[in-house]
Amino acid sequence: MSENETAEAVEAPAAEATEAPGAFTSAGTVSTEDLMEALMDVVDPELGIDVVNLGLIYGLHIDADDTATVDMTLTSAACPLTDVIEDQARTATDGLVKDLRINWVWMPPWGPDKITDEGRDQLRALGFNV
């Protein structure tokens, strides 16, 4: 493989990550795992469960300058709490990334099938039947 082919092969996944939800990529000094852990402090105000375990995070991309873009959805497109969740996400990631951008996505639509096992346990503890 030539030097140009190697560069193209390395750059291709990052380009795909910005085009479609569901990609988790990191080009900066912060890992996607660290960012996901920080986002566990962001709690859906209506359900009381974090956005990670609710399955609301569809993708993450961290640029070389540590600017993070989060592809996120909500349990309902009509949810009036996007500002609250954005504020929580900025507070949770403050000092971890240089800037945080939330790309609200609605496809595929969120459904209970996206909730993690831990999220299901948390919902059951709150009295939900999941």
Provide a descriptive summary of the structure in words:
Strands 1-2-3-4 form a 4-stranded mixed β-sheet, sandwiched between helices. The chain is of the alpha/beta class and 130 residues long. Helix 3 links the parallel strand 3 and strand 4. Mean pLDDT is 84; it is low at 1-20. It has helices at residues 3-19, 32-39, 82-93, 117-125; strands spanning 24-26, 57-62, 67-72, 99-104.
Q: What is the rounded Rg?
A: 16 Å
Oligomer: single chain
Distance between the termini: 51 Å
Spatial order of strands in the largest sheet: 1-2-3-4
Give the number of DSSP strands.
4
The ordered H/E elements are: HEHEEHEH
Q: On the 0-100 scale, what is the average pLDDT?
A: 84
Instruction: Please outline the major beta sheet.
Output: 4 strands, mixed
Overall 3D geometry?
globular
**What count of helical segments does DSSP give?**
4
Are there runs of 5+ residues with pLDDT below 50, and where?
Answer: 1-20
Helix content: 25-40%
Strand content: 15-25%
**Structural class category:** alpha/beta
Q: What's the helix and strand layout?
A:
Blueprint: H1 3-19, E1 24-26, H2 32-39, E2 57-62, E3 67-72, H3 82-93, E4 99-104, H4 117-125
Parallel strand pairs: 1-2, 3-4
Antiparallel strand pairs: 2-3
Question: Any descriptors?
Answer:
single chain; 130 residues; alpha/beta; 4-stranded mixed sheet; 35% helix; globular; disordered N terminus
